[in-house]
Amino acid sequence: MDHFQIVPRQLPGGGGPMMDPSLLPHDSWKVNIIVSSVICYAIAVVFVVARVYTRKVMMRIYDWDDTCLIISLVGPLLPVPHGVPQG
After folding, report:
1. In 3D, which of 16, 15, 22, 18 has the Cα closest to residue 7?
2. Which residue in 38, 52, 68, 84 is deepest, having the highest Cβ count within 10 Å?
3. Which pLDDT value is given to residue 31?
4. What phi and psi values does residue 17 have, to the nearest 5 degrees?
């Protein structure tokens, strides 16, 4: 009985006590989604930095595809003006 508390209220029309919904545990995937997104983005940053470093510093070749790769890496960090409403 650690997860909820019974509040002594009566249901309309009689009946037993009603539980307060704010005291019930609610499943939320918010933290899991944020953490997995940050981990995946960090892995992508590591690989992009390694590629750009290898091509620019070691091979002395830097082309338009590297610029597009960097732009696509920065894209997810830009704010979205009309995102999905969170109700």
Report:
1. 18
2. 52
3. 86
4. -65, 150
In this structure, the number of other CB atoms found within 10 A of the CB of residue 18 comes to 13
Tokens of 85: 């409403």
DSSP string, 4-72: --EEEEEPTTS-SEEE-GGGS-----HHHHHHHHHHHHHHHHHHHHHHHHIIIIIS----HHHHHHHHH
| Residue among 36, 35, 5, 33 nearest 21 (CA) | 5
pLDDT(17) > 90: no
Q: What is the pTM of this model?
A: 0.59
Express each pLDDT in 25-73 by its tens digit: 677 788 888 899 999 999 999 999 999 999 999 999 989 999 999 999 9
Joined tokens for residue 47: 């690989």
Domain ranges of the chain: 31-74
